[in-house]
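[audit] Reproducing an earlier prediction to check determinism. Same input, same settings, fresh worker. If the tokens differ from the archived copy the diff job will pick it up downstream; this log only records the rerun itself.
[audit] input (533 residues):
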Amino acid sequence: ERSEQAYVANTPVLVTRLYDASGGAIEITDLAPRFRQFGRLFCPSQLVRMVRPLAGSPRVRVLLRPAADYGRSRPQRTWGSNHVRYVGAEHVVRATADCSITALLEETPFVLRAPFALLLGPDETLQGAVAEVARRFLEQTVDYWQDWVRDLSIPFEWQDEIIRAAITLKLAAHDDTGAVVAAFTTSIPESAASGRNWDYRHCWLRDAYFVANALNRLNATRTMERYLGYIINIAARDEGALQPVYSVSGRPEIEERELDSLPGYRGMGPVRVGNQAYRQVQNDVYGSAVLAATHAFFDQRLYAVGNEGLFRQLEALGERAVAVHAQPDAGLWELRGAAHVHTFSSVMCWVACDRLAKIASRLGLQERSRHWRMHADGIHAVICARAWHAGRGSFVATFEGEALDASLLLLAELGFLRADDARFAGTVAAVERELKRGDFVFRYAAPDDFGTPANAFIVCTFWYIDALAALGRRDEARALFEATLARRNRLGLYSEHIDPASGELWGNFPQTYSMVGMINSATRLSIPWDQAF
């Protein structure tokens, strides 16, 4: 009849309450175990579900139907007194439960008179009573996350919102390799029946930098350290030439294919696995990589401090940036049908050279600092000459172009322009006129390979909020920030896109870029702690 859902405070442990028309009610607690054990992190590929009655005599039915190969094959089942094994061609998983195994196998309803627990994961015998193991996993997982949150450095305002975003970003980071995925899902369309369905379960160097940087600002430094290791390994292997996206393992090939075994979100296919963007040229990646590595030279909290050896590795990325700064690419919006010299890509090439100059200066390598400053100044001059549109009074999305895109809102954030530069104010005003619909900002308005975009790109609205704050328009920025916060789902999460009219969320979910934008805007706009009370 109705439902309620919330996270246990400062954790990703999800509690759902279901109520029926007869007065019955149950509570479901879901978690993925994560805690320290035997001096190391214990985070098995396992889900734990705990179910208990709250009121009345609720009847429940447990449906457990694992599938492999995206629904194309169903595993064979074997079972014992307290478990069911699902045996596939490549993997075997085990469900261990203290409810009726017959009810589980035959999917028959039963009256829930007492709590039960179910653990789905590796094909291993559970070391202890089901209820006891589930309870211990719950308690230790809650303790782990609440301890992690306790160490965050957060602003005074919007603390709950920032904590939820930070937890979500940490979940997107792969502890083993350091990769950060763009989202947790594939093929939720950017707008209804648009065909804009993509697999975001991979590591985009651009997005991952923004995620790691946001967590670093909150004092969650280990994510940044692991990501630095990931990107340094890739850069060393690829000898300066970078793809925009890699697999979580760092594998370069992530071939895109469409599946006919799944109908798609609300029947809106196609469902895609892999992402062809790995074959694209996106020249902003060199700046993203250098930006990430810059932390190693300036943030003394990090364990692995940058040295001259790392700087020499980064110089190879800088040389690539110099070579490609005025060459066509697909841009950060990954346009598939055309290539232009994108202003944002060129600005990120400038970023690579600018940060290398600063790193060299910090290391006392003055000749190399002058070398990279010369290149940075040269690229800056090219961009100002070719991407500034005097008639519009703003920068534009491509060299000698006419159209705008929302990445221009980052010109001050990246240090390319000062916030008090009239050209930045003019660019923000142009974006307001042409890309803002209601409270939300579109990434661009021009038609692309799939037609005219129907929904706004959520992080672009946060970029706009940050730009307003940089221009001294704090009251406007705060009002828009509050309006944007109100569009999160009931658990405090964002997807990638939003319908500016209805507020309906679209696109892969949860989207790390959107959560990063919220953290950055909240940090910028919050009242300082020393003025809070």
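[audit] rerun output stored. Observation attached for the diff report: Residues 151-527 form a domain with the Glycosyltransferase fold (CATH 1.50.10.10).
[audit] end
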